[in-house]
Design brief:
Number of strands: 7
Structural class: mainly beta
Number of domains: 1
CATH architecture: Irregular
Order of helices and strands: EEEEHEEE
Distance between the termini: 35 Å
Number of helices: 1
CATH topology: Factor Xa Inhibitor
């Protein structure tokens, strides 16, 4: 059996837009634990056998909605604190890219839905963020130099 290729955690980047036009994306310093979740909700339908109505129905599903969430936590970098606060307080959607290994990129608009600051005695302040997609998140082709 061939040994599987795995990736270092540094190969998962959460990049926020830093400029409106043209849109420029940059990873967030300090966020060292991160996750990207894609999910689908479905509707269930019971489909009965027309020739044997006493037989149990088979359950079929149809995807009704798609969504994506991003979460992260790490050290609060003071230069980024105003950006997080501003985003949460304005409640607007902002472009975000999730890059995996530089070869797979997802992009869409997200709302900042969670912002927690915390610290323990004689430690550094930590930040925890949560982003929820606001509309479609699409996989885009990698940019080749």
């Amino acid at each position: 059996m061939a040994r599987p290729q795995t990736l270092a955690s540094s190969k998962l980047l959460i990049k926020l837009s830093t400029a409106a036009a043209p849109t420029v994306f940059a990873p967030q310093c300090g966020i060292n634990s991160k996750s990207f979740n894609r999910s689908a909700e479905s509707k269930d339908f019971a489909v009965y056998d027309c020739d044997d109505l006493d037989a149990p129905a088979w359950l079929e599903r149809e995807v009704s909605t798609l969504q994506s969430d991003v979460s992260g936590n790490g050290w609060l970098v003071l230069s980024g604190a105003d950006r997080w606060d501003d985003w949460l307080e304005k409640g607007d959607s902002r472009p975000v890219q999730i890059v995996i290994n530089g070869t797979r990129t997802y992009q869409g608009n997200y709302k900042l839905t969670k912002l927690n600051y915390g610290a323990e005695e004689k430690d550094r302040i930590k930040v925890e963020i949560g982003l929820s997609s606001d509309g479609p998140v699409t996989k885009i082709a990698p940019v080749t130099p």
